[in-house]
């Protein structure tokens, strides 16, 4: 398969920031909006601090110590969920600044995701589905494939009102599960040492990337067959995160939209390591 090389042009340059939220945060590993709104941005740092950014004033309203090496952060109501690199997952009350529940998953670099009231967590040999309010495990998703290594990336997929979970492994295998029935629906072998995975359900297309300079575009059909469509070459090796941008142009073909978002989100001209980015309307927080 011949990799697709994005053309060298001004479109490769990163856009100038509309504004910059500056503080002594250090390395940010994950961001999320507080309580599902868009007025407060949570920034979780490598030092275990969580910064609450007021997007109306563009100032940090407060910062709280919520663990060590926070890898991912989620919220609902007045509660915050943190996942530490060590594997400890904690439920916090914002009002009391106290941890009120905990759960243990596999430590490493894989960030948890939420699907409704379900927290999806990596484990050594599979994926745990946990109620994010009670922290009780509802299901474990396992694969009968061997030598997969650790789970490195998680993503959800919506199809005909059902929810599915994609997991990318160190071995390069991507497994697809039915989240309701807990059964494996499909799998495919990609490049080894995957680090990031994204999927756009309306387009039926996804992208995975890892330690190499190649991002692989794949599709999932109605029978859950997963196939690689093409490869997109990056100027340098290693991709920490890739996402499909939500503001698609319906007049463009899906593959052209995907190439556009890859050029935009690869951030190849940024000199610093990017830990995460998040969309809000036409704004992207990096």
TrEMBL record:
Keywords: Repeat, WD repeat. SMART domains: WD40. The keyword Repeat applies. InterPro entries: WD40/YVTN_repeat-like_dom_sf, WD40_repeat_dom_sf, WD40_rpt. It comes from the Eukaryota. Coiled coil: none annotated. SUPFAM superfamilies: WD40 repeat-like. PANTHER family: GUANINE NUCLEOTIDE-BINDING PROTEIN SUBUNIT BETA-LIKE PROTEIN 1, TRANSDUCIN BETA-LIKE 3. This is Uncharacterized protein.
